[in-house]
Amino acid sequence: MSDYVLKNGVLVGRKEPGKILGVREGKIVPSGPGCIIDLKGNSMVYPGLINTHDHLQGNYRPPVGPKPGTFYLNWLPWDKDLKASATFKERSRLSRDDLYHLSGYKCLFSGVTTVNDHFPQKFNAAILPTLPIRAILEYGLAHEASSYDLKWGEGLEPEYKRAVKNNWPFITHLSEGFDDESMNGVNYLESLKIFDSHCLLIHCIGFSDEDIKKAAAAGVSVSWCGFSNMFMFNVTCKIRKILRAGINVTIGTDSAASGSANLLEEMRYDRELYRAMYGEDLPAKTIFQMVTANAARAFWMQDRIGDLEDGKLADILVLRARRDDPYENLLNAPMEDIEFLSLAGTPLYGELRFLDILDGKLPQGYTRITVGGRPMFVKGDPAGLYKMARKKIGFKKELDFLPFEPDGE
């Protein structure tokens, strides 16, 4: 692979305006020698997107939710319904490795280069480095700050201390429901002295106004998962008050077992949800920040990812330019609009014109697929994975986060 330059594209997420972005040794530079890809004014260039909340082993369709006309009080009855469902039985025909790699491509095909898999490292440390995208291992976590917590990791306090020691995030579901314990999540973390800028708190639908004030003062980050919240609970967090309080808000998909198909779909859904809740718009630029710079900050990785500034890792997403406003362009982009995606400079996925970055040919470890009528190259073999999954499942299963049909089917 050579160093390369993308020119004549609209650069989004870079302070200095310009139309040239260089990549050298996996990092962003102003320009320089190397292969030149001319975008001809038809493309927009973004930082790779960041999904702050997923459960990669749980990405399977259709989602499982409450009985019609009812909603959950907390996450526990959902878990029981999931494990009793036909979806779970069907999903169980696939191995953990299968599910994780399908999830890696769920991320890749939605422009996501960095994700958190909300499981303990004991479960995922061996498999995450094998995925095509970056699934971070640098975090402390708990499942939930309540008595029905699944006791993941080494415990709330040791996991938090490990995160602080290593400048990592401490990630936990919090206030995911409306029972007494869920509503007391902030007070419980405060009592343990676990409530500061290391905390990335997932859902927060039970936050009171006082909880929001405390969260803002403490400098915590919140991962908003609007689709999953509405599907399971028929309500989401007080997102407008959370934003107005100055809290660092990010977006997560949750797993596809209860959440949206991918991050692109989640961004659009959350914007429409905000409009329905408040009768006003949530600016596309604000949502862009939630899935880039805000998310990098929540992961304590803002020195490495989240924008296109010089010296950052070259996590790059190139989209077809369909709208003049680059933020609206992102918010309205389907998976088929992705033209190129790289991770630390390494091409993951792209139109064949980007093969010049890979010395003009398809190297070992890459395959071709057809997406939206276009031949594309991709790292790994998602078509083979998809075929194998269908064989194990026993029929032609359609997974809406994979935007192609395997060849020959």
What brief labels describe this structure?
single chain; 409 residues; alpha/beta; Urease, subunit C, domain 1; TIM Barrel; 2 domains; 7-stranded mixed beta sheet; 5-stranded parallel beta sheet; 31% helix; globular
Description:
This protein is of the alpha/beta class. The protein folds into two domains: 4-48 and 306-393, Urease, subunit C, domain 1; 50-298, TIM Barrel (Alpha-Beta Barrel). It has helices at residues 75-83, 86-91, 96-108, 121-124, 156-166, 180-183, 185-191, 209-218, 226-233, 239-244, 263-278, 284-290, 293-298, 326-331, 382-393, and strands spanning 4-7, 10-11, 20-24, 27-29, 35-38, 43-47, 49-54, 112-117, 134-135, 140-144, 170-174, 199-203, 221-224, 248-251, 316-320, 338-343, 346-351, 366-371, 374-379. The strands form four sheets. It has a seven-stranded mixed beta sheet. It has a five-stranded parallel beta sheet with strand order 10-11-12-13-14. Strand 3 and strand 4 (27-29) form a beta hairpin. The chain is globular and about 60 Å long. The two termini are 32 Å apart. The mean pLDDT is 95.
